[in-house]
Write a structure and sequence with these properties.
Elements: H1 29-50, H2 55-76, H3 78-86, H4 89-108, H5 119-151, H6 158-182, H7 185-188, H8 193-202, H9 204-209, H10 214-230, H11 253-280
Length: 288
């Protein structure tokens, strides 16, 4: 077929054609806000209040769900979030370290509690301290900050938008933190000021630098301090669920430790495979 001028109509190159199967509608970020608040209330409510899992078994389920949720979120908004992870990285980590020292001082200023001996204590420092602290930071601080970044279309240009981003980070983080803590029975009849103050401190890296990665340092330090100084809870209750005589604690602690070790090996293996794929596949890192 020819046009009036005798030339053939332009045909798009194969690389310019977008198959219908690849066109996906991106869900509204607000659905992730609502879904996250509901999910992270339901996980502790079901795992501790209804089922009464032994704490380390509960953490195993919580960590798996939280990482899967965050991975799905990042996969959905990968392009929009790419610059967030690079933004002021070292400043974010520095602010997170300062905030972590402040939280550790609060923990160590209260009365200590007992802790197990031998390998169990070192296991809890790694599992309930480092890993639990990192996953909590991902759920309560990094995820809300990334949501705020997506909602603002990655634009923090100018003082007004930086302040707006910081305010949105705090608001979303406090929503997630409140919903999450209310999933534990011990917080429903208690003062939530301590966990919410801790949330503000952990959010300081995102608010001040734009990058939330410093929250890993802040909250990881807080959890390790709590395990070392207040393994049985203490007044700040930084390691829920609180196991009392009424708590059924279904599950064996040694079995939980073994499953946790297998989980960590599996997570480390998956992360190694992912990093290698990104290094060998230029499309995965956005390079052409």
């Amino acid at each position: 077929m020819r046009t009036l001028h005798g030339s053939r109509p332009a045909v798009p190159a194969p690389s310019e054609v977008t198959p219908v199967s690849r066109v996906r509608s991106t869900p509204s970020p607000w659905l992730w806000v609502v879904g996250g608040a509901v999910l992270f209330f339901a996980v502790p409510f079901i795992g501790t209040d209804l089922v009464g899992l032994q704490p380390d078994l509960f953490y195993l389920g919580y960590f798996t769900i939280a990482l899967a949720w965050f991975a799905a979120f990042v996969a959905t908004y990968r392009a929009q979030l790419r610059e967030l992870w690079r933004l002021n990285v070292w400043w974010s980590l520095a602010v997170g370290a300062v905030a972590g020292v402040a939280v550790a001082m609060i923990v160590f200023s209260s009365a200590p509690t007992g802790h197990p001996d031998g390998w169990q204590w070192w296991f809890e420092i790694g599992w309930r301290g480092v890993v639990y602290g990192i996953v909590d930071a991902l759920t309560l601080f990094v995820f809300p900050a990334a949501l705020a970044y997506v909602l603002m279309h990655g634009d923090r240009t100018g003082a007004k938008r930086k302040i707006g981003y910081g305010g949105l980070v705090l608001a979303l983080s406090l929503v997630m933190s409140t919903s999450y803590h209310l999933g534990y029975a011990e917080y429903r009849d208690a003062d939530l000021r301590s966990p919410l103050i801790g949330s503000v401190l952990a959010d300081s890296s995102a608010v001040l630098t734009g990058n939330p990665l410093g929250a890993f340092v802040t909250h990881g330090t807080a959890h390790v301090s709590a395990v070392v100084h207040q393994e049985e809870g203490g007044p700040t209750q930084m390691l829920p669920p609180k196991v009392t005589g009424d708590y059924p604690s279904r599950g064996d602690s040694d079995l939980a430790a073994g499953l946790a070790a297998l989980w960590l090996l599996g997570a480390a293996g998956a992360l190694t495979v992912l990093v290698r794929r990104r290094r060998t596949n230029p499309l995965a890192t956005g390079r052409r």
